[in-house]
C-alpha cells in the first residue's frame, strides 16, 4: 500500500525510498514486530479467558508436558495478523505472487483455526478429521499451483528446476501441478508436526522464510540471476517483504512462546506458516531447495511416516516416540536443549540451501 507514495516522489526525496524492496522489507519486519509486542499480551489474555482449560494435552505424550496444561493455543493468530498487516502495508498489491502466498497462508490458517477450535471446544486432541484437512489443503494448494504457474515465464511453466546443476530443467508438464500441490501440503503438515515444544517450530520457520526471501529477491532481479546463473522469475522480489513479515511476526510471537510458553502457536500458525513456505518455493521455482532449507521439517515428518509404517509392519517402534523431537525427550534430553540444537541444525541447513544459488 505504501508503495504508492512513490507517485509523490520527484526521484530524489524521502518518498523515493518506497521504490526499494529492501527498504519496504525493513518496514514490514518492524511493523510485524511491533504488532506482535502490542497485541501479544491482549490476545493471550483473550484466548485464556475464552479457552478456559487451554489446549488439551495428549495422555500418551511425554510426562513433562502435563505441566503445560491450561496454556492457551491459537497463538498463530498473532503471527498471521502481524504478517497480513505488514504485507498489505508494505508490499506492492499489484503483484500476483504476493496474493498467491497470502491466499495460501490465510486459507491454511483458517483450516488450522477450525482444528484448534474443535480441540479446545471439545477438550479433545482430535480436531478436524485428517482426511478433511488434507482434502481442503490439496484444494487450496491446487488453486495456488495453477495460479503461480500462470504467472511463471513461459519457458519455466511446468518445469522443475534443479539446484547446483546449471541450466537443468525437468519438464513435468501438467504433472507440475500435483507436484506443487504436494510441496505446499507437505510443507504445511511437516511444520505442523514440528510444532511440539516451546519455541521449536517458530525459529526454524523464521530461518527458512528469511532464506527463501533472499532467494526470492535474487531470482526476481535479472542482474542477480545473470550473475548467479539461476532462472529469472520476474516479480518474486516482493516476496521478500512477506518473509520479512514472517520474521518480525515470528519474533514477536517467540517473546511469548519462549519456554515456558505463555501461548501455543496451534495449527492456526503451524499450518499457515508451513503452507507459506511451500507456496514461496513454488513461486520461486525452488521446490527442491525448500527440502534442504526446511530439512528439519522433512526429518520430523519422515520420523512419523517411518514410525507408523514400521509399527504396522512389525508391531515395533523405530523411535521411542514420534515426531523425532519427542524421541529425544524420552531419551532424557531437556526441552531447551532439543529446541536450541534443532535451531542450530536449521541454521546450518539454511546456509547450505542458500549456497545452492552460487554453487553451479
TrEMBL record:
HAMAP family: MraY
Recorded topology in the membrane: Multi-pass membrane protein
Transmembrane segment boundaries: 20-44, 65-90, 96-114, 134-152, 172-193, 200-219, 239-256, 263-282, 288-311, 338-357
Protein name per Swiss-Prot or TrEMBL: Phospho-N-acetylmuramoyl-pentapeptide-transferase
Keywords assigned by UniProt, alphabetized: Cell cycle, Cell division, Cell membrane, Cell shape, Cell wall biogenesis/degradation, Magnesium, Membrane, Metal-binding, Peptidoglycan synthesis, Transferase, Transmembrane, Transmembrane helix
Binding site for Mg(2+): 192, 267
GO terms, biological process: cell division; cell wall organization; peptidoglycan biosynthetic process; regulation of cell shape
EC number(s) recorded for this UniProt protein: 2.7.8.13
Catalytic activity: UDP-N-acetyl-alpha-D-muramoyl-L-alanyl-gamma-D-glutamyl-meso-2,6-diaminopimeloyl-D-alanyl-D-alanine + di-trans,octa-cis-undecaprenyl phosphate = di-trans,octa-cis-undecaprenyl diphospho-N-acetyl-alpha-D-muramoyl-L-alanyl-D-glutamyl-meso-2,6-diaminopimeloyl-D-alanyl-D-alanine + UMP
Places the protein is found: Cell membrane; Membrane
Signal peptide: none
Free-text function comment from the UniProt entry: Catalyzes the initial step of the lipid cycle reactions in the biosynthesis of the cell wall peptidoglycan: transfers peptidoglycan precursor phospho-MurNAc-pentapeptide from UDP-MurNAc-pentapeptide onto the lipid carrier undecaprenyl phosphate, yielding undecaprenyl-pyrophosphoryl-MurNAc-pentapeptide, known as lipid I.
Primary localisation category: membrane
Pathway: Cell wall biogenesis; peptidoglycan biosynthesis
Cofactor: Mg(2+)
GO CC annotation: plasma membrane
Pfam families per UniProt: Glycos_transf_4, MraY_sig1
Keyword Repressor: no
A single GO molecular function term of this UniProt record: phospho-N-acetylmuramoyl-pentapeptide-transferase activity
Amino acid at each position: 500500500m505504501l508503495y504508492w507514495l512513490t507517485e509523490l516522489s520527484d526521484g530524489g526525496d524521502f518518498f523515493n525510498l518506497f521504490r526499494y524492496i529492501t527498504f519496504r522489507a525493513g518496514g514490514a519486519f518492524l511493523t510485524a514486530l511491533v504488532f506482535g509486542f502490542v497485541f501479544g499480551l491482549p490476545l493471550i489474555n483473550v484466548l485464556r479467558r475464552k479457552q478456559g482449560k487451554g489446549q488439551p494435552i495428549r495422555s500418551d505424550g511425554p510426562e513433562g508436558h502435563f505441566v503445560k496444561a491450561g496454556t492457551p493455543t491459537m497463538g498463530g493468530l498473532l503471527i498471521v495478523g502481524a504478517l497480513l498487516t505488514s504485507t498489505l502495508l508494505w508490499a506492492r498489491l499489484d503483484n500476483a505472487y504476493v496474493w498467491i502466498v497470502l491466499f495460501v497462508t490465510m486459507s491454511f490458517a483458517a483450516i488450522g483455526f477450525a482444528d484448534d477450535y474443535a480441540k479446545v471446544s471439545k477438550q479433545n486432541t482430535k480436531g478436524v478429521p485428517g482426511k478433511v484437512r488434507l482434502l481442503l489443503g490439496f484444494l487450496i494448494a491446487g488453486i495456488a499451483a495453477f495460479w503461480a504457474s500462470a504467472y511463471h515465464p513461459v519457458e519455466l511453466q511446468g518445469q522443475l528446476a534443479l539446484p547446483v546443476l546449471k541450466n537443468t530443467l525437468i519438464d513435468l508438464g501438467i504433472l507440475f501441478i500435483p507436484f506443487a500441490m504436494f510441496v505446499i501440503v507437505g510443507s504445511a503438515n511437516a511444520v505442523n508436526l514440528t510444532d511440539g515444544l516451546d519455541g521449536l517450530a517458530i525459529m526454524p520457520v523464521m530461518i527458512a522464510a528469511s532464506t527463501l526471501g533472499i532467494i526470492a529477491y535474487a531470482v526476481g532481479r535479472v542482474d542477480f540471476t545473470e550473475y548467479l546463473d539461476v532462472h529469472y522469475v520476474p516479480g518474486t522480489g516482493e516476496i521478500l517483504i512477506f518473509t520479512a513479515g514472517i520474521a518480525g511476526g515470528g519474533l514477536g510471537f517467540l517473546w511469548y512462546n519462549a519456554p515456558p510458553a505463555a501461548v501455543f502457536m496451534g495449527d492456526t500458525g503451524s499450518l499457515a506458516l508451513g503452507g507459506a513456505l511451500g507456496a514461496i518455493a513454488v513461486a520461486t521455482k525452488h521446490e527442491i531447495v525448500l527440502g534442504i532449507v526446511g530439512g528439519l521439517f522433512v526429518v520430523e515428518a519422515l520420523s512419523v511416516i517411518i514410525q507408523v509404517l514400521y509399527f504396522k509392519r512389525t508391531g515395533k517402534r523405530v523411535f521411542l516416540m514420534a515426531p523425532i523431537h519427542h524421541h529425544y525427550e524420552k531419551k532424557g534430553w531437556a526441552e531447551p536443549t532439543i529446541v536450541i540444537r534443532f535451531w542450530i541444525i536449521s541454521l546450518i541447513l539454511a546456509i547450505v540451501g542458500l549456497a545452492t544459488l552460487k554453487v553451479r
